[in-house]
Amino acid sequence: MKRPDVFDYFAPGRVNLIGEHIDYCGGYVLPFAINLGTYLSIKPNGGSCHVFATDNYEPHEVKVDVNNLTPLQKGLWVNYPLGIIARFAEKEFRLPACDFYYYGNLPSGAGLSSSASVELVTAVALNDLLHSGMDLLDLVKMAKDCENNFVGVNCGIMDQFAVGFGKKNNSILLNCNTLDYSYADFNLGDNVVVVVNTNKVRKLTDSKYNERFNQCLELKKIIGGVREIDCLCDLKSEEIGEYRTLINDDVLFRRLRHVVTENERVFQTYHALKDNNLQEVGKLLVEAHASIRDDYEATGIELDTIVESAVEIDGVIGARMTGGGFGGCALAIVNEDKVEDFMGRLAERYTQKTGLVPSFYLVKPADGAKKI
Ligand code: GLA
Question: Which range marks the domain in which residue 16 is found?
Answer without folding.
Answer: 7-185
